[in-house]
């Protein structure tokens, strides 16, 4: 678990401002969405009340919600300390991993083609579909497209799903860069009219195969709910722990 938490500490700061606050790595994004601004604790972190207060103030100064995301096995005593300081649990998210020997390949369903984005318009349509699927505004500005392109240059793999008949992009997903044999699969999303056909499973399987073939020995993801977790299980992912999100409103 420490290896995966170390991976997150390495990749989460990409494109963000960071700051050390006691036993925490605080990350700040130019996008003020709460999910893009959070702190990550050191392994076995047992902060003092003053260090937790300092972390809270660091986010308050930037008009951001004080938040943390981390794997509980890495810092088992931290949640109680944070709750005692007034933080509330937002959710517990399962951690799932897949090794090359466990991967189950899954083809795209009939009428759907999986492909790598080839243009700015592809990236824009893919992200718009993901945003819509996640209940976020569909609009994708030029700055976000440039961020996606920068990610590609840094080793991020994007994959979109397109309707063969209309050419419309109906979903997408990504695999972050591989660091010391570990990588994260994220952003798997499919527009509601196309769900239930195996597209999410195919996107996940295709990306997982790609990173395994590129040298990753561990692919991991954090499903948002039990339903999508069952989808990931069908392509070889198995429970390996949990991630918690806590914040102070």
**Could you give the order of the helices and strands?**
HEEEHEHEEHHEEEHEHE
**CATH architecture classification of the largest domain:** 3-Layer(aba) Sandwich
Instruction: Tell me the domain tally.
Output: 2
Main sheet specs: 8 strands, mixed
Which fold name fills CATH's third level, the topology of the largest domain? Answer: Aminopeptidase
Q: pLDDT average, as an integer?
A: 96
Strand order of the largest sheet: 4-11-5-10-9-8-7-6
The N- and C-terminal alpha carbons lie at a distance of 29 Å
In a nutshell, what does this entry contain?
The chain has helices at residues 2-11, 49-61, 78-84, 120-133, 142-153, 199-213, 226-233, and strands at residues 17-21, 24-28, 38-41, 67-71, 88-98, 112-115, 157-163, 169-175, 182-190, 218-221, 238-247. It has 249 residues and is of the alpha+beta class.
What can you see in these coordinates?
Helices cover 32% and strands 29% of the residues. The protein has two domains: 85 residues, no CATH class; 141 residues, Aminopeptidase (3-Layer(aba) Sandwich), CATH 3.40.630. It has seven helices and eleven strands. It starts with a helix and ends with a strand. It is an alpha+beta fold and 249 residues long. The strands form two sheets. It has an eight-stranded mixed β-sheet, with helices on both faces. A three-stranded antiparallel β-sheet has the order 1-2-3, covered by helices on one side. The model has no long low-confidence stretch (mean pLDDT 96).
């Amino acid at each position: 678990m420490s290896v995966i938490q170390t991976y997150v500490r390495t990749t989460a700061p990409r494109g963000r401002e960071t700051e050390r606050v006691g036993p925490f790595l605080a990350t700040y994004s130019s996008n003020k969405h709460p999910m893009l601004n959070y702190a990550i604790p050191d392994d076995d972190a047992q902060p003092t009340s003053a260090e937790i207060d300092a972390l809270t103030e660091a986010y308050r100064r930037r008009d951001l919600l004080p938040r943390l995301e981390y794997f509980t096995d890495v810092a088992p005593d931290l949640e109680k300390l944070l709750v005692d300081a007034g933080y509330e649990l937002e959710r517990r998210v399962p951690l799932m991993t897949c090794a090359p020997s466990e991967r189950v390949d899954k083809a795209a369903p009939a009428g759907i083609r999986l492909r790598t984005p080839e243009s700015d318009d592809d990236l824009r349509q893919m992200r718009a579909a993901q945003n819509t699927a996640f209940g976020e505004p569909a609009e994708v500005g030029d700055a976000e497209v440039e961020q996606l392109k920068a990610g590609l240059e840094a080793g991020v793999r994007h994959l979109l799903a397109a309707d063969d008949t209309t050419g419309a992009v109906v979903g997408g997903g990504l695999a972050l860069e591989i660091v010391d044999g570990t990588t994260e699969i994220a952003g798997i999303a499919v527009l509601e009219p196309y769900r239930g056909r195996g597209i999410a499973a195919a996107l996940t399987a295709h990306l997982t195969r790609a990173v395994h073939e590129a040298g990753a020995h561990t692919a991991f993801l954090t499903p948002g709910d039990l339903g999508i977790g069952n989808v990931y299980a069908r392509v070889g992912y198995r429970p390996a722990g949990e991630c918690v999100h806590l914040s102070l409103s």
